[in-house]
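pasting input
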Amino acid sequence: MERLVAKSLEKRDTKKLVAIQKIQSVALKAVHDFFEQQHFLQLMPIILSPMTDPLGPDPGSSVVKTGEIEYLGQKLQLTQSMILHKQIAIGQGLEKIYIMSPNVRLESAKRKSSGKHAFEFTQIDFEIKGGTMFNVFKLVEDLLKTIMERVRVQADEELMLLNRVLPKWSYPFKRLTTHQLEEKYGKDWETLASLDTDTPFWAICHDREFYDKKDWKRAGDHFLNYDLIYPEGFGEALSGAEREYEYDRLMQRISEDKLDPLKYRSYLDLAKKGLLSPSAGGGLGVERMVRYLTGSKHIGDVQVFRRIPGEPVTY
Ligand code: ASN
């Protein structure tokens, strides 16, 4: 017990902590202003549901279990992401939405030193009815441009205190397939490719969760999904996709992933009735964004209340 307490009561540079929180506040205000100007509606997050994002199967995932509680006879899971709920909301007539969505992802302690994993974090999760990946690329590039400009102007003193000079990026960002990235940097391309660029880039076409749309028009395994990677070694900023929404395709993808369709029954019932719609979207991690903006070494350094896998939680 002694050891755990000692470890978590680290000495923090409170001046830096305050500067980081100021930069976060400026950035979040820019996010809200941007989405308002783009006519998005902000939805409230959900924390508990009979179903959540399975986050896989993904051989690279280190989530050890999904948080679950029992409440009045029902098993409810803690949100790993609101992807399924975003699709349901779009099916209910909402056209452009975003949510400041808290996620709990119980990652293995191995992730402690990655610098970018927190087991509790918030993502700016958005979805566009009838959207394509190209709509998302433009939207996110404009969003990041707005955030960077706002932070440069309104938090110049804080940036200076943190010794952070925000670079000028060139737009639009490059797009590279995972195939190209693996060829150049190997299977673990993310950090190497991120160190090798001074502007973010889009990494497209990943074989992952069932709700990310497969490119059914092409033979072989191609996917209409994407990650955005920050420069300077900071790694992944966002992940997203065009979505599967048709019942037969969802069932096919769920069975290929060896998941239990009963877990997603209410979502699949809507799909069966034609009540899900085509859409595209993504989620931009707030703490990872603030880590980048502030040039912080570890994501825990931007959290007032650290939530780092393998670190004890004291408050
Ligand atoms: N928010 C992501 C998306 O929209 C999903 C995720 O975080 N796993 O695709």
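fyi Residues 53, 55, 81, 83, 123, 125, 239-241, 281-283 surround asparagine (CB under 6 Å).
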